Amino acid sequence: MRRTRVLTAVLALAAGLLAGGPPALAADAPAPTPAAVSKPAADTYTWRNARIDGGGFVPGIVFNRTEPDLAYARTDIGGAYRWQESTRSWIPLLDSVGWDDWGHTGVVSIASDSADPDRVYAAVGTYTNDWDPGNGAVMRSGDRGASWRKTVLPFKLGGNMPGRGMGERLAVDPHDNDVLYLGAPSGHGLWRSTDAGVTWAKVTSFPNPGNYAEDPDDASGYASDNQGVVWVTFDESTGTAGSPTRTVYVGVADKENAVYRSTDAGATWERLAGQPTGYLAHKGVLDAENGHLYLAYSDTGGPYDGGKGRLYRYATATGTWTDISPVAEADTYFGFGGLTVDRQNPGTVMATAYSSWWPDTQIFRSTDSGATWTQAWRYTSYPERENRYVMDVSSSPWLTWDANPSPPEQTPKLGWMTEALEIDPFDPDRMMYGTGATVYGTEELTNWDDDTPFTIRPMVRGLEETAVLDLASPPSGAPLLSALGDIGGFRHTDLTKVPSMMFTRPNFTSTTSLDFAEFAPDTVVRVGQVDSGPHVAFSTDNGANWFAGTDPSGVSGGGTVAASADGGRFVWSPEGAGVHHTTGFGTSWSASQGIPAGAIVESDREDPHTFYGFRSGRFYVSRDGGATFEASPASGLPAGDSVRFKALPGTAGEIWLAGGASDGPYGLWHSTDFGETFTKVPGVDEADTVGFGKAAPGASYPTLFTSARIGGVRGIHRSTDAGASWVRVNDDAHQWGWTGAAVTGDPRVFGRVYVATNGRGVVYGDLADPGGGTDPSGACEVAYRVTHAWGDGFQADVRLTNTGTTPWDGWSLAWSFAGGERIAQLWNGAHTQSGRAVTVRDAGWNGRVAPGASVSFGFTASGAPADARPAAFALGGKECAVR
């Protein structure tokens, strides 16, 4: 969306994320006691997303040029994904990125090796300024992203920086795939690897590191960074297998000198003569068969802005430049960004008006190399318009935003920030494009040329890219309420299904905090950012419907909010104004006394008159419904404001507080006396969030969850004995970068935990059911097929069919490998492996299988595929037929 990729950074900065990154262990922190050292959980967890489908900006989509159906998508803060054709969904590839390297969830570029389709590369790093404390890196994989190796670069990369829709900055030489180029930001120039991404060196002969910055006067370093070298394109007609491609084109963020070429495999470079000036070249796409280099230009780097643009065609043989823009320059109010050619039909080219926010984005198509164009929509009699396409968002209905715009606007929109546009190189009917909220696509694209309507649908299942700011799991009603950046938040009544709509009426661009009344969970309050109108909203039906409250004077942002246990009182600490309290539903607010502005506020979950606050190392308590607060005498708490705390349900005055920073106290604290005193929990080196879930069987105390470093191990940890001992419930394959915004258990399901990520949506973990749900009759059939193999690994697809007469409500399939094969990554299911024995369970959304229906999953594994075909499969202990 428009603002919150930057807004998320600001919010995270307040939480300690970007002020040097996730803090390191304080030098004077006490050594962990043996009882508090977190061990791996003895019970296995399965991890899934609460389905939203999309929710963020997808600036890049890359198809492999030699293998059908192999495609990748990159996101600005939420990692990279691979398309899985059998399930029509995306598989996350960077969930293994850990806390200390959180910046590597921002992907500035991705490259798929057409000579060896098992190889894929990702250039990662989120910010080039000091918001991201780490340098960028190039990650390389020989198994399509199932596992990675990493080379850290001597400079930063900016997956969430201005200009991130330009590219691709990373490219593999199609003739010598050990050669890669990387365009760097911040004046670092062009870099090259000659050993398949293991080592990198600057191309010292490249003459221009770029000079364009969105706002040279931005003191934060965000908008003032030089956007640098922005794309690399090879002319595959100028090389032979085994030798580096001779001709390489490079785009630079320089309005006077935007395009360079080498004709000697990168030894020397020259500025292309006669090129247009006054614009930045967002994309350079080469049609080698016709000898045309197409370029999409904008007057800014995007992805939000851009007021003028042009499309050009460069004849590589003659050096002739032709302006092929579909719109006269005087009539543009946008830049061109998305750009693609049809590899099956040379001469067919498409482009997007990426920065046309109103009334809609525009997509242009030419079948004669840009001589003439048609548009995705046009005006008939203003403001009425005629579309070539039909939008079907039934799979993600929230994409309408519950809007009812006046013409010429429509809902759902065709898109915005449409920098990524690709025609499938093997299927002229399939096109995908990225927007600020989803991936759209069609499989009827050539209908365009017959002037026949074609349908555009979300093609985004599995790609979860929301930044999560707060979470709540009430004891009744919907199991999950979420506060999200960019798209407000959702009420999930079924975690496996996309909700029909985000929180609306009012719509917040971002919800910063929400709470429910512990005794009356139908009463819910949320606060957030909004362009105009009140920043607070209430619900009396568990978040299904909302109505706006009113703002105290001076409010400029959401801040934090708390509901009393009985739902009769609320305390709000908004941005721009001090802490306020109200009875009823916020028709009027009164200033709270004794607590500083900007305090984090929470409510006691048992005493309706008690509220709490925290600000700059001091804890505050109100016993009169938020009218007055008193500072607690408690000392030794974190000095800053990187703190999350919650009161325990069922017990008045019991509080758990997490937070801190590397230069002071950092950990987890516990109070049982309304915050008068706090005791630091031994062995918890660092803790950033805390939440409660259902007590373990036979226990009375709620389960604790925290995102923390315990015993030197970062992760999501669980305690069933009030913090005396801990187990880590996630694993190294499931880390999701930074998880410091929120965590909560589910009060109705023991073991379930909801984790807020900064760009991978809401992740939830459940205890695996070793038995799984199975067909009572055991009537099943398995088709097992190895689809790809490489030197030390392979990929397989498994299709499980219900051949019985009753539906399955969950399934669990088991087999044993013949040798030492180990599964590295599995999609559309959850797996465990002990030695050769493997068990795969459903992923929740695919658990119900009707008679005669099938469900598929796939995996990559190490080992020799010839030895890997299992001899038998069992569904819940009953053998399946194999074909």
Describe this structure in words.
The chain has 883 residues and is mainly beta. Helices cover 1% and strands 37% of the residues. It contains 1 helix and 72 strands. The strands form 18 sheets. Strands 1, 53, 54, 55, 56 and 57 form a 6-stranded mixed β-sheet that branches. It has a 5-stranded mixed β-sheet with strand order 29-33-32-31-30, with no helix packed on it. Strand 41 (557-563) and strand 42 form a beta hairpin. The protein is globular. Mean pLDDT is 93; it is low at 1-35 and 770-776.
Give short descriptive properties of this protein:
mainly beta; 6-stranded mixed β-sheet; 5-stranded mixed β-sheet; 1 helix; 72 strands; 1% helix; 37% strand
Give the overall average pLDDT.
93
Largest sheet: 6 strands, mixed
Number of strands: 72
Low-confidence stretches: 1-35, 770-776
Proportion of residues in β-strands: 35-45%
Question: How far apart are the first and last residues' alpha carbons, in Å?
Answer: 47 Å
Indicate the structural class: mainly beta
Rg measurement, Å: 27 Å
Helix content: under 10%
What coarse outline follows from CA principal-axis ratios? Answer: globular
In DSSP terms (H or I, runs of 4 or more residues), the helix count works out at 1
Keywords: Carbohydrate metabolism, Glycosidase, Hydrolase, Polysaccharide degradation, Signal
Signal peptide: 1-26
Protein name: Cellulose binding domain-containing protein
Family: Belongs to the glycosyl hydrolase 74 family.
